[in-house]
Structure formats: structure tokens, C-alpha cells
User: Fold this.
Amino acid sequence: MDAEAILAIHGSTKSMYAIIIPNASHLPKGLDASTHTVQELESLTGLGFFAALEDSEEALLESTRQVLP
Assistant:
């Protein structure tokens, strides 16, 4: 499994993306099926990402599933 947590900042707008990709030769359901919330990724790994953000902003961003552009 490979996992990534991404914080994208565009001007004053912030978005978070979390991707969990299984170790496989192809993604049978495509990349969009591999996107999750950062909160789900934190639960899976036991790690805390983006702790430097304000708690309310962190909670909102980490609980929102974003599809990759």
C-alpha cells in the first residue's frame, strides 16, 4: 500500500487530498476510487498530518473527501 496526504494552497483557498493505493499492477476502479479523507488516512496509519493548522480548519479540511482534479 502507498498512501499520500496532500495540502494544496491556492491563494487563500486550501484543500486536502488523501490517496491510498494498493500494491497492484493496476487500479481496477480507477484513481478516484483510491481517494479518501485525510481523517481516514490518519486512522489507518496512526499518524497525525497537518497539526500546524488551526484545529477548526484542520478538522474541516481533514474530514472532506476531495477528488483529484
